[in-house]
């Protein structure tokens, strides 16, 4: 492991020749000082150290690595047991030097950094460097150079990253299988969530994001788990695991509460699955991810025309963003240390230099617009949703008059939300579906639900 | 429910006659802006509103309640579904007026408040009030008056609070029973944690604090779950649930991995249980909690003298803090909306006016030093630990020379940590053990492990 960490640090210093300081951040108080949210180290820090150290910083300069962290106090030892000393941590991450955190003051001149998420450490960053951090300083600064260098590295994954992500995926797959099995006896969304997250916790992992486990999949970021499960409902579960080193997985499956899709549910499911399959088939290095998104849009539009829900030429419908009435989000995003990898940097990682978000309804939520490259991991997650805020919107009703067959749509009222999401590695020659061990076909899903 | 909330607000305004503003706080970013820690509203806000509203504030003045919160944006509706409007929330909590958050500026003059935990909202509090908040302003200010008034209210629990805490306890008991059952097949601490927390999540609750589930109970705040379970190990599980309205439970049990305590484990377990039972028997209104702590210390000292581990007169041993070599923490704490209730206020809630923490080794970690009062809920959690940082400390070895029989202690090497923790309500006439449905006797624990 230490070899790969050293390679990452070496590559970074080849890309930028100013000193670099990366902070890990601190645990954040929940309702009182001693009751903390589980600590999550900054992803950039994790990438170069491979250790979730709290309240630490590293300096990368002229090929040397210096660690800044305080030794545990006697009280720490009483309450938290023997914890590693600064020296042993330094050895573990391959640091050349190691000092108490206060010493950092002597090394901050001309250093580039990236803002951490926790406000207390962010304030320390401002104080130590005595200047604003990107994006509050001008774009020409060293922070942006550092950000671009880190994006270059983190956009594609080395063996260590891939090994970790495979571990996170394996556990997420087990969680989904457990969720399907639990549906037979569960009465509420919360019970299925408990069964799924229990699997993740049992493997000493954490949820990579707040799980979505709902019979109201049309609420895209639903984090309510109170609904009862009724026959005829579909359950949408978007649940991913994160390894102790911070690497994420991100999987969505949609299954029927009864264990059997209704004919209408199967019709729509097949459209979403077809979009999923065609996107994955089309992926290879050099292909634009935006075109993969548009292929999903086209496939969904075609399918909905075939069912009679949409009327018109599928290509024209996509031009008009009519697909987005039912598929309003993007086809996916980068996956890595963050479930939306490097989204702390805004669109800098997701969007190729010179590109910006579209203001089109059908493209504006696309989180990634780059050509695919070997070593990238992206999600492919088409969906179909009947979102009241969209379908009842008078502007849309006017704009898409004559395009939606409302009577036909009414026949599909038992399909509120379906999404199928896999994690896909781009390889030199094509792709590998990392989540392939969890089936997507409706028959296989039904079998898992009944197992 | 609204009646009790109104009673709470009425009582507060009877205790303090300045305007009061309480902020709820905001969700905190984990690794990027859209990936948030699960939101926890400020306990003081929850106490008076009964709703976990994000980014809201209330003003209490002259018997009226004013709510400040922004209406959901169209994007909120797309991603989060239909969320209640300001007006409907106002109605739900019984507010007389309701305005957008920005309006708060017009109501901040002379208002008292309490600092929230999340740094972003705390900064807003400073900006809006344009002054430092307690404890950074002088002790004579209105903030301290407000704090003391709230402590007066929250120290004892009304029916609504009690109902919620009973719910949290019921789920925590189920989690512990599941943990005991899971031990039969589990290989690691994490697997037992997954089984226990899965129960809490399945009931749509959250963990009230970071669970301790460990075969190294001697590490008092152990949050590592990676150890394998070996025959001969004891598992210490300190796991509590929190209801959606924020009310906590806090339970610890210790059970043998094999389902059967060894004779040495049972000897020590019986001492801890005897301390637990004697403390609970001695509790009633008017009794000093500090004396309950000292009774636990005495019982543990007596038990260790009987086993030959300590030598001397038990009362003298407690005077010398020798009990604290094996029981270094306090007998418990207040329980309510926070698992250490109102610990965000430092020792103001835990310590009766005029009292401060002792610097004695055997008393300094006591979190509560007040006479018991009807309506209080406290934990009773004696323990026995072989903490290397204590037992290998040369100062202690010197100070307690001749008091510890090291050869005898060595016979108990299979007891690294035992704690038994219940939640106890003080009533008008005595007490009620709210967690009584989860047995404490070693025989009953063995039966549960084998069920």
Automatic annotation (TrEMBL), chains A, B:
Listed PANTHER family: XAA-PRO AMINOPEPTIDASE 3
Domain of life: Bacteria
SUPFAM superfamilies per record: Creatinase/aminopeptidase, Creatinase/prolidase N-terminal domain
Pfam families in alphabetical order: AMP_N (PF05195), Peptidase_M24 (PF00557)
Gene Ontology molecular function terms on file: dipeptidase activity; manganese ion binding; metalloaminopeptidase activity
Keyword tags: Dipeptidase, Hydrolase, Manganese, Metal-binding, Protease
Uppermost EC category: hydrolase
Lineage: Bacteria, Bacillati, Cyanobacteriota, Cyanophyceae, Oscillatoriophycideae
Catalytic activity, as annotated: Release of any N-terminal amino acid, including proline, that is linked to proline, even from a dipeptide or tripeptide
Enzyme Commission identifier(s): 3.4.11.9
Residue ranges constituting the Aminopeptidase P N-terminal domain according to the UniProt record: 1-127
UniProt name for this protein: Xaa-Pro aminopeptidase
Gene Ontology cellular component terms for the protein in this record: cytosol
Cofactor(s) of this protein: Mn(2+)
Single GO biological process annotation from the record: proteolysis
Family affiliation: Belongs to the peptidase M24B family.
